[in-house]
Amino acid sequence: MANDSFSALKEKILRKKIKIAVVGLGYVGLPLALEFAKKGFSVLGIDVDCDRIECIKKKQSYISDVSDGELRKVISCGRFSAINDFRAIKESDCIIICVPTPLKRKYNPDISYIKQAVKAISKNIRKVSLVILESTTYPGTTQEVILPLFEEQRLKHNRDFYLCFSPERIDPGNKNYPVNKIPKIIGGVSKEATALAGLVYKNIIEKVVLVSSARVAEAVKLLENTFRLINIGLIDELAMMAHKMKIDIWEVIDAAKTKPFGFMPFYPSGGCGGHCIPKDPLYLYWKAKKFGFESRFIKLASDIITFMPEYVVERLQMALKEKGIPLKKAKILVMGVTYKKDIKDLRKSPSLDIINILQKRNVKVAYFDPLIPYLKLNNINLKSIELTKDKLNKFDCVVIATDHSSVDYGFILKNSRFIFDTRNAYRGIKSSKVIRL
Ligand SMILES: NC(=O)c1ccc[n+]([C@@H]2O[C@H](COP(=O)([O-])OP(=O)(O)OC[C@H]3O[C@@H](n4cnc5c(N)ncnc54)[C@H](O)[C@@H]3O)[C@@H](O)[C@H]2O)c1
Predict the structure, then answer these.
(1) Pairing assessment for the beta strands 184-188 and 380-383 based on DSSP bridges
(2) 3-state secondary structure of 249
(3) Residue 321 confidence (pLDDT) above 50
(4) Distances in Å between the alpha carbon of 69 and those of 56, 58, 76, 79, 391?
(5) Are 96 and 20 in contact (CB under 8 A)?
(6) pLDDT for the residue 89
(7) Terminal CA-CA length for the chain
(8) How confident is the model at residue 2 (pLDDT cuts 50, 70, 90)?
(9) What is the 25 CA–ligand 1 centroid distance (Å)?
(10) Which residue's C-alpha comes closest to atom 31 of ligand 1?
Protein backbone atom coordinates (compact mmCIF):
# COMPACT_ATOMS: atom_id res chain seq x y z
CA MET A 1 0.00 0.00 0.00
CA ALA A 2 1.33 3.44 -0.93
CA ASN A 3 2.45 5.48 2.09
CA ASP A 4 2.58 9.25 2.57
CA SER A 5 6.21 9.67 1.54
CA PHE A 6 5.57 7.74 -1.70
CA SER A 7 2.50 9.80 -2.56
CA ALA A 8 4.26 13.08 -1.81
CA LEU A 9 7.31 12.24 -3.94
CA LYS A 10 5.12 10.87 -6.74
CA GLU A 11 3.10 14.06 -6.77
CA LYS A 12 6.25 16.17 -6.90
CA ILE A 13 7.62 14.13 -9.82
CA LEU A 14 4.33 14.37 -11.72
CA ARG A 15 4.26 18.14 -11.23
CA LYS A 16 7.90 18.28 -12.46
CA LYS A 17 8.87 19.99 -9.23
CA ILE A 18 11.76 17.69 -8.38
CA LYS A 19 15.38 18.77 -8.36
CA ILE A 20 17.78 16.24 -9.82
CA ALA A 21 21.40 15.60 -8.84
CA VAL A 22 23.71 13.62 -11.11
CA VAL A 23 26.77 12.25 -9.33
CA GLY A 24 29.69 11.56 -11.70
CA LEU A 25 29.78 13.79 -14.78
CA GLY A 26 31.53 11.59 -17.33
CA TYR A 27 30.46 9.97 -20.61
CA VAL A 28 27.25 8.79 -18.93
CA GLY A 29 26.50 11.47 -16.32
CA LEU A 30 27.01 14.66 -18.31
CA PRO A 31 24.72 13.81 -21.29
CA LEU A 32 22.09 12.52 -18.82
CA ALA A 33 22.23 15.69 -16.71
CA LEU A 34 21.79 17.79 -19.85
CA GLU A 35 18.87 15.70 -21.04
CA PHE A 36 16.96 16.46 -17.81
CA ALA A 37 17.99 20.13 -17.88
CA LYS A 38 16.78 20.45 -21.50
CA LYS A 39 13.38 19.15 -20.38
CA GLY A 40 13.10 21.96 -17.84
CA PHE A 41 14.35 20.27 -14.66
CA SER A 42 16.76 21.97 -12.32
CA VAL A 43 19.87 19.76 -12.37
CA LEU A 44 22.92 19.78 -10.14
CA GLY A 45 26.03 17.89 -11.20
CA ILE A 46 28.45 16.60 -8.57
CA ASP A 47 31.93 15.31 -9.37
CA VAL A 48 35.14 14.82 -7.41
CA ASP A 49 37.21 15.91 -10.42
CA CYS A 50 37.77 19.66 -9.95
CA ASP A 51 39.07 20.07 -13.52
CA ARG A 52 35.74 18.80 -14.87
CA ILE A 53 33.80 21.15 -12.57
CA GLU A 54 35.96 24.04 -13.79
CA CYS A 55 35.29 23.11 -17.44
CA ILE A 56 31.55 23.11 -16.79
CA LYS A 57 31.76 26.48 -15.05
CA LYS A 58 33.54 27.79 -18.16
CA LYS A 59 30.81 26.15 -20.28
CA GLN A 60 33.39 23.95 -22.00
CA SER A 61 32.47 20.37 -22.75
CA TYR A 62 35.03 17.57 -22.31
CA ILE A 63 32.71 14.83 -23.68
CA SER A 64 32.46 14.26 -27.47
CA ASP A 65 28.68 13.76 -27.40
CA VAL A 66 28.03 17.09 -25.63
CA SER A 67 28.70 20.35 -27.47
CA ASP A 68 29.81 23.60 -25.81
CA GLY A 69 26.64 25.16 -27.25
CA GLU A 70 24.35 22.67 -25.49
CA LEU A 71 26.20 23.19 -22.22
CA ARG A 72 26.09 26.99 -22.59
CA LYS A 73 22.33 26.91 -23.17
CA VAL A 74 21.37 24.97 -20.03
CA ILE A 75 23.85 26.79 -17.79
CA SER A 76 22.82 30.23 -19.05
CA CYS A 77 19.16 29.60 -18.33
CA GLY A 78 20.04 28.45 -14.80
CA ARG A 79 18.95 24.80 -15.22
CA PHE A 80 22.36 23.21 -14.77
CA SER A 81 25.31 23.83 -12.47
CA ALA A 82 28.12 21.68 -11.12
CA ILE A 83 29.99 21.46 -7.85
CA ASN A 84 32.37 19.11 -6.03
CA ASP A 85 30.63 19.39 -2.65
CA PHE A 86 28.20 16.65 -1.60
CA ARG A 87 26.45 18.93 0.91
CA ALA A 88 24.57 20.36 -2.07
CA ILE A 89 22.76 16.98 -2.36
CA LYS A 90 20.34 18.21 0.33
CA GLU A 91 18.61 20.33 -2.30
CA SER A 92 17.78 17.32 -4.51
CA ASP A 93 14.83 14.92 -4.60
CA CYS A 94 16.29 12.49 -7.10
CA ILE A 95 19.95 11.46 -7.15
CA ILE A 96 21.41 9.53 -10.06
CA ILE A 97 24.82 7.90 -9.63
CA CYS A 98 27.06 7.53 -12.71
CA VAL A 99 30.53 6.90 -11.27
CA PRO A 100 33.14 4.52 -12.78
CA THR A 101 33.18 0.77 -12.14
CA PRO A 102 36.62 -0.46 -13.25
CA LEU A 103 38.42 -3.71 -12.46
CA LYS A 104 40.94 -4.11 -9.65
CA ARG A 105 42.77 -7.00 -11.23
CA LYS A 106 41.70 -8.75 -14.40
CA TYR A 107 38.74 -10.60 -12.92
CA ASN A 108 37.93 -8.50 -9.83
CA PRO A 109 35.35 -5.66 -9.77
CA ASP A 110 36.24 -2.38 -8.12
CA ILE A 111 33.05 -0.84 -6.75
CA SER A 112 34.91 1.57 -4.44
CA TYR A 113 33.72 4.61 -6.47
CA ILE A 114 30.10 3.56 -5.95
CA LYS A 115 30.67 3.05 -2.22
CA GLN A 116 32.42 6.41 -1.81
CA ALA A 117 29.65 8.22 -3.67
CA VAL A 118 26.88 6.42 -1.72
CA LYS A 119 28.53 7.14 1.64
CA ALA A 120 28.74 10.84 0.79
CA ILE A 121 25.14 10.88 -0.49
CA SER A 122 23.71 9.01 2.51
CA LYS A 123 25.21 11.59 4.90
CA ASN A 124 23.66 14.49 3.02
CA ILE A 125 20.44 13.14 1.55
CA ARG A 126 17.16 14.85 2.25
CA LYS A 127 14.09 12.91 3.34
CA VAL A 128 12.33 11.84 1.10
CA SER A 129 14.50 11.11 -1.97
CA LEU A 130 14.81 8.70 -4.85
CA VAL A 131 18.30 7.27 -5.47
CA ILE A 132 19.14 5.57 -8.75
CA LEU A 133 22.38 3.78 -9.62
CA GLU A 134 23.28 3.82 -13.33
CA SER A 135 26.88 2.55 -13.11
CA THR A 136 27.29 -0.95 -14.54
CA THR A 137 27.87 -3.49 -11.79
CA TYR A 138 27.30 -7.10 -10.73
CA PRO A 139 23.86 -8.41 -9.73
CA GLY A 140 23.27 -7.76 -6.06
CA THR A 141 25.21 -4.49 -5.72
CA THR A 142 22.15 -2.28 -5.20
CA GLN A 143 20.45 -4.57 -2.68
CA GLU A 144 23.49 -6.03 -0.90
CA VAL A 145 25.96 -3.12 -0.89
CA ILE A 146 24.14 0.17 -1.39
CA LEU A 147 20.99 -0.43 0.66
CA PRO A 148 22.97 -1.26 3.88
CA LEU A 149 25.09 1.90 3.43
CA PHE A 150 21.91 4.00 3.60
CA GLU A 151 20.55 1.93 6.49
CA GLU A 152 23.76 2.61 8.44
CA GLN A 153 22.66 6.25 8.45
CA ARG A 154 19.34 5.17 10.03
CA LEU A 155 17.48 5.78 6.82
CA LYS A 156 14.55 3.46 6.17
CA HIS A 157 13.81 2.26 2.66
CA ASN A 158 10.30 3.01 1.34
CA ARG A 159 9.94 5.70 3.96
CA ASP A 160 13.01 8.00 3.93
CA PHE A 161 14.36 7.03 0.55
CA TYR A 162 13.65 4.82 -2.48
CA LEU A 163 16.41 2.91 -4.26
CA CYS A 164 16.68 1.63 -7.84
CA PHE A 165 19.10 0.34 -10.43
CA SER A 166 18.74 1.56 -13.98
CA PRO A 167 21.63 0.72 -16.32
CA GLU A 168 22.92 3.26 -18.80
CA ARG A 169 22.90 1.73 -22.28
CA ILE A 170 24.34 4.58 -24.36
CA ASP A 171 26.69 3.99 -27.25
CA PRO A 172 28.96 7.07 -27.36
CA GLY A 173 29.23 8.53 -30.85
CA ASN A 174 26.15 6.69 -32.16
CA LYS A 175 24.03 9.49 -33.63
CA ASN A 176 21.12 7.11 -34.42
CA TYR A 177 20.54 6.32 -30.76
CA PRO A 178 20.82 9.34 -28.45
CA VAL A 179 19.96 8.86 -24.74
CA ASN A 180 16.23 9.56 -25.22
CA LYS A 181 15.80 6.88 -27.92
CA ILE A 182 17.22 3.98 -25.88
CA PRO A 183 14.58 2.20 -23.76
CA LYS A 184 15.38 2.48 -20.06
CA ILE A 185 15.44 -0.63 -17.88
CA ILE A 186 14.43 0.02 -14.26
CA GLY A 187 14.51 -2.39 -11.34
CA GLY A 188 13.95 -1.18 -7.80
CA VAL A 189 14.51 -2.52 -4.31
CA SER A 190 10.73 -2.21 -4.00
CA LYS A 191 7.92 -1.80 -6.52
CA GLU A 192 7.34 1.72 -5.22
CA ALA A 193 10.96 2.64 -5.98
CA THR A 194 10.61 1.17 -9.50
CA ALA A 195 7.41 3.11 -10.13
CA LEU A 196 8.93 6.43 -8.99
CA ALA A 197 12.03 5.98 -11.16
CA GLY A 198 9.78 5.08 -14.11
CA LEU A 199 7.94 8.39 -13.71
CA VAL A 200 11.22 10.32 -13.55
CA TYR A 201 12.75 8.76 -16.69
CA LYS A 202 9.52 9.07 -18.69
CA ASN A 203 10.28 12.79 -18.85
CA ILE A 204 13.36 12.24 -21.00
CA ILE A 205 13.11 8.74 -22.48
CA GLU A 206 10.55 7.47 -24.97
CA LYS A 207 10.18 4.00 -23.44
CA VAL A 208 10.75 2.68 -19.93
CA VAL A 209 10.87 -1.06 -19.18
CA LEU A 210 10.12 -1.98 -15.57
CA VAL A 211 11.57 -5.25 -14.27
CA SER A 212 10.92 -7.12 -11.05
CA SER A 213 14.07 -6.26 -9.08
CA ALA A 214 17.34 -4.37 -9.02
CA ARG A 215 19.20 -7.69 -9.48
CA VAL A 216 17.34 -8.35 -12.74
CA ALA A 217 18.11 -4.83 -14.00
CA GLU A 218 21.79 -5.30 -13.11
CA ALA A 219 21.82 -8.65 -14.93
CA VAL A 220 20.14 -7.18 -18.05
CA LYS A 221 23.05 -4.80 -18.62
CA LEU A 222 25.57 -7.59 -18.10
CA LEU A 223 23.71 -9.90 -20.48
CA GLU A 224 23.86 -7.21 -23.18
CA ASN A 225 27.57 -6.58 -22.75
CA THR A 226 28.43 -10.26 -22.34
CA PHE A 227 26.60 -10.94 -25.61
CA ARG A 228 28.84 -8.36 -27.28
CA LEU A 229 32.05 -9.59 -25.64
CA ILE A 230 31.42 -13.19 -26.67
CA ASN A 231 30.53 -12.31 -30.24
CA ILE A 232 33.57 -10.05 -30.58
CA GLY A 233 35.76 -12.82 -29.13
CA LEU A 234 34.20 -15.30 -31.55
CA ILE A 235 34.75 -13.15 -34.64
CA ASP A 236 38.32 -12.35 -33.55
CA GLU A 237 39.01 -16.07 -33.28
CA LEU A 238 37.35 -16.72 -36.65
CA ALA A 239 39.48 -13.95 -38.19
CA MET A 240 42.66 -15.67 -36.96
CA MET A 241 41.34 -19.01 -38.24
CA ALA A 242 40.32 -17.56 -41.61
CA HIS A 243 43.78 -16.04 -42.06
CA LYS A 244 45.38 -19.49 -41.64
CA MET A 245 42.83 -20.92 -44.10
CA LYS A 246 43.43 -18.07 -46.58
CA ILE A 247 39.79 -16.95 -46.44
CA ASP A 248 38.84 -13.26 -46.36
CA ILE A 249 36.81 -12.95 -43.13
CA TRP A 250 35.47 -9.50 -44.12
CA GLU A 251 33.96 -10.86 -47.32
CA VAL A 252 32.47 -13.77 -45.35
CA ILE A 253 30.83 -11.41 -42.83
CA ASP A 254 29.45 -9.13 -45.56
CA ALA A 255 27.87 -12.09 -47.33
CA ALA A 256 26.58 -13.68 -44.10
CA LYS A 257 24.83 -10.50 -43.03
CA THR A 258 22.56 -10.66 -46.08
CA LYS A 259 20.63 -13.31 -44.11
CA PRO A 260 17.60 -11.40 -42.85
CA PHE A 261 17.26 -13.33 -39.58
CA GLY A 262 19.37 -15.28 -37.12
CA PHE A 263 22.65 -13.47 -37.82
CA MET A 264 24.11 -10.23 -36.55
CA PRO A 265 27.45 -8.99 -37.89
CA PHE A 266 30.40 -8.44 -35.53
CA TYR A 267 33.79 -7.38 -36.87
CA PRO A 268 37.30 -8.40 -35.86
CA SER A 269 39.87 -5.82 -34.75
CA GLY A 270 43.10 -5.51 -32.83
CA GLY A 271 41.26 -5.82 -29.52
CA CYS A 272 38.34 -4.34 -27.66
CA GLY A 273 38.52 -1.18 -25.56
CA GLY A 274 36.39 1.31 -23.68
CA HIS A 275 34.98 1.34 -20.17
CA CYS A 276 32.32 -1.33 -20.86
CA ILE A 277 32.70 -4.43 -23.03
CA PRO A 278 36.17 -5.59 -21.87
CA LYS A 279 35.31 -5.36 -18.18
CA ASP A 280 31.54 -5.54 -17.55
CA PRO A 281 31.20 -9.30 -18.27
CA LEU A 282 34.01 -9.91 -15.78
CA TYR A 283 31.78 -8.42 -13.09
CA LEU A 284 29.29 -11.20 -13.88
CA TYR A 285 32.08 -13.79 -14.05
CA TRP A 286 33.30 -12.72 -10.58
CA LYS A 287 29.84 -12.75 -8.98
CA ALA A 288 28.91 -16.12 -10.53
CA LYS A 289 32.06 -17.60 -8.97
CA LYS A 290 30.66 -16.71 -5.53
CA PHE A 291 27.85 -19.10 -6.40
CA GLY A 292 30.32 -21.82 -7.41
CA PHE A 293 29.80 -21.26 -11.15
CA GLU A 294 32.60 -20.52 -13.60
CA SER A 295 31.53 -19.04 -16.94
CA ARG A 296 33.86 -20.57 -19.53
CA PHE A 297 32.41 -18.46 -22.35
CA ILE A 298 33.18 -15.14 -20.62
CA LYS A 299 36.72 -16.16 -19.72
CA LEU A 300 37.50 -17.53 -23.17
CA ALA A 301 36.17 -14.47 -25.01
CA SER A 302 38.02 -12.16 -22.63
CA ASP A 303 41.28 -14.06 -23.15
CA ILE A 304 40.94 -14.03 -26.95
CA ILE A 305 40.22 -10.30 -27.00
CA THR A 306 43.14 -9.54 -24.68
CA PHE A 307 45.44 -11.48 -27.03
CA MET A 308 44.47 -9.48 -30.15
CA PRO A 309 47.06 -6.63 -29.87
CA GLU A 310 49.76 -9.33 -29.58
CA TYR A 311 48.29 -11.04 -32.65
CA VAL A 312 48.37 -7.77 -34.64
CA VAL A 313 52.06 -7.39 -33.86
CA GLU A 314 52.71 -11.05 -34.81
CA ARG A 315 50.97 -10.55 -38.17
CA LEU A 316 52.84 -7.30 -38.70
CA GLN A 317 56.13 -9.06 -38.01
CA MET A 318 55.31 -11.84 -40.50
CA ALA A 319 54.24 -9.41 -43.20
CA LEU A 320 57.37 -7.29 -42.83
CA LYS A 321 59.55 -10.39 -42.82
CA GLU A 322 58.15 -11.31 -46.23
CA LYS A 323 59.36 -7.92 -47.41
CA GLY A 324 62.79 -8.58 -45.92
CA ILE A 325 62.34 -6.07 -43.06
CA PRO A 326 62.97 -7.35 -39.51
CA LEU A 327 60.37 -5.92 -37.12
CA LYS A 328 62.97 -4.41 -34.81
CA LYS A 329 64.44 -2.40 -37.68
CA ALA A 330 61.04 -1.23 -38.95
CA LYS A 331 59.40 2.18 -38.59
CA ILE A 332 55.70 1.81 -37.80
CA LEU A 333 52.91 4.37 -37.85
CA VAL A 334 49.80 3.52 -35.81
CA MET A 335 46.70 5.26 -37.21
CA GLY A 336 44.00 5.94 -34.65
CA VAL A 337 44.66 5.52 -30.93
CA THR A 338 41.22 5.90 -29.38
CA TYR A 339 39.37 2.66 -28.64
CA LYS A 340 36.63 3.44 -31.13
CA LYS A 341 36.24 5.62 -34.21
CA ASP A 342 35.24 9.27 -33.87
CA ILE A 343 35.33 9.14 -30.07
CA LYS A 344 37.93 10.91 -27.94
CA ASP A 345 38.18 8.06 -25.42
CA LEU A 346 41.47 6.24 -24.82
CA ARG A 347 40.29 3.91 -22.04
CA LYS A 348 41.62 0.38 -22.56
CA SER A 349 42.34 1.21 -26.20
CA PRO A 350 44.03 -1.73 -27.98
CA SER A 351 46.08 0.81 -29.99
CA LEU A 352 47.91 1.69 -26.77
CA ASP A 353 48.68 -2.01 -26.23
CA ILE A 354 49.97 -2.29 -29.80
CA ILE A 355 52.22 0.77 -29.30
CA ASN A 356 53.44 -0.62 -25.95
CA ILE A 357 54.26 -4.03 -27.40
CA LEU A 358 56.16 -2.42 -30.29
CA GLN A 359 58.06 -0.07 -28.00
CA LYS A 360 59.00 -2.94 -25.66
CA ARG A 361 60.52 -4.64 -28.70
CA ASN A 362 62.47 -1.46 -29.46
CA VAL A 363 60.56 -0.82 -32.66
CA LYS A 364 60.40 2.82 -33.79
CA VAL A 365 56.73 3.69 -33.52
CA ALA A 366 54.80 6.91 -34.13
CA TYR A 367 51.08 7.60 -34.26
CA PHE A 368 48.49 9.78 -35.93
CA ASP A 369 45.08 10.56 -34.47
CA PRO A 370 43.03 13.62 -35.45
CA LEU A 371 41.36 13.60 -32.00
CA ILE A 372 44.40 13.04 -29.78
CA PRO A 373 47.27 15.50 -30.29
CA TYR A 374 49.41 14.07 -27.46
CA LEU A 375 49.70 10.66 -25.79
CA LYS A 376 51.15 10.63 -22.31
CA LEU A 377 50.04 7.43 -20.60
CA ASN A 378 50.88 3.72 -20.14
CA ASN A 379 54.62 4.53 -20.50
CA ILE A 380 53.90 6.15 -23.87
CA ASN A 381 54.99 9.72 -24.46
CA LEU A 382 54.31 10.68 -28.08
CA LYS A 383 52.92 13.51 -30.19
CA SER A 384 50.60 12.81 -33.12
CA ILE A 385 52.60 13.26 -36.36
CA GLU A 386 51.64 15.60 -39.14
CA LEU A 387 50.11 13.56 -41.92
CA THR A 388 52.17 14.67 -44.93
CA LYS A 389 53.28 12.82 -48.05
CA ASP A 390 56.95 12.92 -46.98
CA LYS A 391 56.27 11.72 -43.44
CA LEU A 392 54.01 8.87 -44.54
CA ASN A 393 56.58 7.61 -46.99
CA LYS A 394 59.18 7.20 -44.24
CA PHE A 395 57.26 4.41 -42.49
CA ASP A 396 57.70 0.76 -43.44
CA CYS A 397 54.11 0.10 -42.43
CA VAL A 398 50.99 2.03 -41.43
CA VAL A 399 48.77 0.04 -39.05
CA ILE A 400 45.14 1.18 -39.24
CA ALA A 401 44.16 0.51 -35.63
CA THR A 402 41.12 2.84 -35.42
CA ASP A 403 39.34 4.07 -38.54
CA HIS A 404 38.25 7.65 -37.75
CA SER A 405 35.86 9.01 -40.38
CA SER A 406 37.75 12.27 -40.92
CA VAL A 407 40.93 10.54 -42.12
CA ASP A 408 41.71 10.57 -45.86
CA TYR A 409 42.43 6.88 -46.47
CA GLY A 410 43.02 7.48 -50.19
CA PHE A 411 45.84 9.89 -49.33
CA ILE A 412 47.37 7.34 -46.97
CA LEU A 413 47.17 4.59 -49.57
CA LYS A 414 48.75 6.79 -52.21
CA ASN A 415 51.65 7.90 -50.03
CA SER A 416 52.45 4.88 -47.86
CA ARG A 417 54.72 1.98 -48.63
CA PHE A 418 52.62 -0.67 -46.94
CA ILE A 419 49.40 -0.81 -44.86
CA PHE A 420 48.12 -3.32 -42.30
CA ASP A 421 44.40 -2.62 -42.06
CA THR A 422 42.84 -4.07 -38.88
CA ARG A 423 39.48 -2.29 -39.42
CA ASN A 424 38.67 -2.88 -43.07
CA ALA A 425 39.05 0.83 -43.79
CA TYR A 426 39.99 -0.24 -47.34
CA ARG A 427 36.80 -2.21 -47.87
CA GLY A 428 36.45 -3.15 -51.53
CA ILE A 429 39.88 -1.78 -52.48
CA LYS A 430 42.33 -4.24 -53.99
CA SER A 431 45.93 -3.11 -53.62
CA SER A 432 49.18 -5.02 -53.18
CA LYS A 433 50.09 -2.37 -50.60
CA VAL A 434 47.26 -3.40 -48.24
CA ILE A 435 46.89 -6.47 -46.06
CA ARG A 436 43.92 -6.94 -43.75
CA LEU A 437 43.36 -8.62 -40.41
N1 LIG B 1 31.17 5.11 -21.27
C2 LIG B 1 30.18 4.36 -21.73
O3 LIG B 1 30.01 4.20 -22.93
C4 LIG B 1 29.20 3.68 -20.79
C5 LIG B 1 28.00 3.17 -21.31
C6 LIG B 1 27.10 2.56 -20.45
C7 LIG B 1 27.42 2.43 -19.11
N8 LIG B 1 28.61 2.92 -18.62
C9 LIG B 1 28.86 2.76 -17.19
O10 LIG B 1 28.57 4.00 -16.55
C11 LIG B 1 29.48 4.25 -15.46
C12 LIG B 1 30.20 5.56 -15.68
O13 LIG B 1 30.99 5.46 -16.85
P14 LIG B 1 31.58 6.73 -17.58
O15 LIG B 1 32.09 6.24 -18.89
O16 LIG B 1 30.63 7.85 -17.55
O17 LIG B 1 32.81 7.05 -16.61
P18 LIG B 1 33.68 8.40 -16.59
O19 LIG B 1 34.99 8.02 -16.02
O20 LIG B 1 33.61 9.05 -17.94
O21 LIG B 1 32.89 9.34 -15.58
C22 LIG B 1 32.76 9.06 -14.24
C23 LIG B 1 32.84 10.36 -13.47
O24 LIG B 1 32.60 10.05 -12.09
C25 LIG B 1 33.45 10.88 -11.32
N26 LIG B 1 33.59 10.29 -9.98
C27 LIG B 1 34.38 9.28 -9.57
N28 LIG B 1 34.19 9.01 -8.29
C29 LIG B 1 33.25 9.88 -7.86
C30 LIG B 1 32.62 10.12 -6.60
N31 LIG B 1 32.90 9.37 -5.53
N32 LIG B 1 31.72 11.12 -6.52
C33 LIG B 1 31.42 11.88 -7.60
N34 LIG B 1 31.98 11.70 -8.81
C35 LIG B 1 32.87 10.71 -8.93
C36 LIG B 1 34.73 10.94 -12.12
O37 LIG B 1 35.53 12.05 -11.75
C38 LIG B 1 34.18 11.05 -13.55
O39 LIG B 1 34.00 12.39 -13.94
C40 LIG B 1 30.40 3.02 -15.43
O41 LIG B 1 29.88 2.09 -14.53
C42 LIG B 1 30.31 2.48 -16.84
O43 LIG B 1 30.59 1.09 -16.89
C44 LIG B 1 29.49 3.56 -19.43
Answers:
(1) unpaired
(2) helix
(3) yes
(4) 12, 12, 10, 14, 36
(5) yes
(6) 96
(7) 60
(8) low
(9) 7
(10) 117
Q: How far is the CA of 3 from the centre of ligand 1 (A)?
A: 34
Amino acid identity of residue 58, one-letter, is K
Ligand 1: does its nearest atom lie under 6 Å from the Cβ of 112?
Answer: no
Q: Tell me what pLDDT residue 1 has.
A: 47
Question: Are the beta carbons of 435 and 420 closer than 8 angstroms?
Answer: yes
How far apart (Å, rounded) are the C-alpha atoms in residues 437 and 435? 7
CA of 29 to the centre of ligand 1 (A): 7
Residue 20 Cβ < 6 Å to ligand 1:
no
Question: What is the pLDDT of the chain when averaged over all its residues?
Answer: 96
Residue 117 Cβ inside 6 Å of ligand 1? The answer reads yes
Task: Tell me what pLDDT residue 106 has.
Answer: 76
User: What pLDDT is attached to residue 104?
Assistant: 93
**Other CB atoms within 10 A of residue 360 CB:** 10
pLDDT of residue 172: 86
- In the set 164, 272, 276, 397, the catalytic residue is 276
| 276 classed as catalytic | yes
Q: Is 190 exposed, middle or buried (0-12, 13-18, 19+ CB in 10 A)?
A: middle
Question: Three-class SS of residue 63?
Answer: coil
pLDDT digits (tens, 9 = 90+) for 3-54: 889 999 999 999 999 999 999 999 999 999 999 999 999 999 999 999 999 9
CA of 94 to the centre of ligand 1 (A): 18
Q: How many CB atoms lie within 10 A of CB 241?
A: 11
Q: Could you tell me which residues are beta bridge partners of residue 383?
A: 374
CA neighbours within 13 Å on the CB side: how many for 111? Answer: 24
Q: Is the CB of 33 under 6 A from ligand 1?
A: no
